[in-house]
Design brief:
homodimer, about 200 residues, mainly alpha, 2 domains, DNA-binding
DNA sequence: ACCTGAACACCGTTCAAGT
DNA sequence: ACCTGAACACCGTTCAAGT
């Protein structure tokens, strides 16, 4: 019978994360991950179906924890946004994968539902809450990804903190106003968007 | 002396774009690009320093054209946003690179300056215009990247059109309100952002 | 000047073999 | 059951050689 396994799927994922953090996405290689675990490259394939599978697992590990239920919707949205930005800062090499991969997993659905629930609690109608979730999530992910990629490196960290605070304040303002308009008339506010 | 070149840098970039469109980022390989041009792999290196250099050139080619100067600031912002979304739809495989790579090139600076100029024309003070540019650009890029990655595939194209219209309307609303607040007090609108 | 042929180091993956 | 060794197809890149 099988001797106790030397490595596990979660160990492989953790090692891959560390390799990516240290050597970038280009340095994230199966041999590099194996070396960090003190094991042959081929041993990884017993715990991970392929490199693509490993990347999916990394994206999963990047998802932020759900905020405490008893907090206000404002606090929950703020906490999730802050957690996203934190993750981007800690794992800049693999963070872009979050926007790149479908992420149709259970955890990702929970998080999306959590944001929608907060928005409903803020008073938005179901369809407006769903739409607001899409726009807010992509805006937050977009800024975090840009920051992680060094897009704003010519600005002080303090300036970027204020950027992010303003983004959250803007979101707050829009929610207070009843969320994004859901009628087709909204498209006319900025012409050229329909072309 | 040199016979007329069979290929050029721009031909290599165009071929790479076509390969990526057809076979995805993973299929974008130097041999594949060369084959499409009817040339040996090694011939590419006379026109492109490396694959990384080629990817940078692709990102450059992805940048939208500057809108006509005589248009209103509203029209110009709308046109640029629409152009970005259009590009994402046409080149979904390489579009994510736009958020991933620094893009500190001349053209990218022109575009950023164009957005800032439009915002100044809308009445924003210099520092607010600069901040609004960062937030607007990343929000638009974020949504376009998410859409290109199939993040919203479970929604009708028509729903996504409205999403995007709402995003532009929201931006418009914030600009009319004087742009994003620039003081530190803005951070308190959504607590948890400072942690 | 531009392209080709041969070659090298490397990566993802498979498969049979070991314990 | 889990890991290893050997092997294969492939990719990015270099260099000397052809025209």
């Amino acid at each position: 019978m099988g001797r106790p396994a030397q490595i596990s799927r979660s160990a492989v994922v953790a090692a891959a994360m560390a390799v990516a953090d240290e050597h970038g996405l280009a340095g994230l290689t199966m041999p590099a991950v194996a070396a960090r675990l003190g094991v042959t490259t081929m041993a990884l394939y017993r715990h991970v179906a392929s490199k693509d599978d490993l990347l999916d697992a990394l994206v999963e590990a990047l998802l932020p924890p759900l905020p405490p239920e008893q907090a206000s919707w404002r606090e929950r949205l703020g906490a999730m946004a802050a957690a996203i930005r934190d993750t981007a800062a800690r794992h800049p090499a693999i963070f872009p994968l979050l926007l790149q991969r479908p992420a149709a997993t259970e955890r990702s659905r929970e998080i999306r539902d959590g944001v929608v629930a907060a928005l409903r609690q803020a008073g938005l109608a179901p369809d407006r809450a769903a739409r607001a979730e899409r726009l807010i999530s992509t805006a937050v992910l977009g800024y975090a990804a840009g920051e992680a990629a060094g897009r704003f490196d010519h600005h002080d960290r303090h300036v970027r903190d204020e950027d992010f605070a303003c983004l959250l304040a803007a979101i707050d303002t829009l929610i207070e106003g009843g969320g994004p308009a859901s009628g087709p008339a909204a498209g006319r506010a900025v012409p050229g968007s329909g072309g």
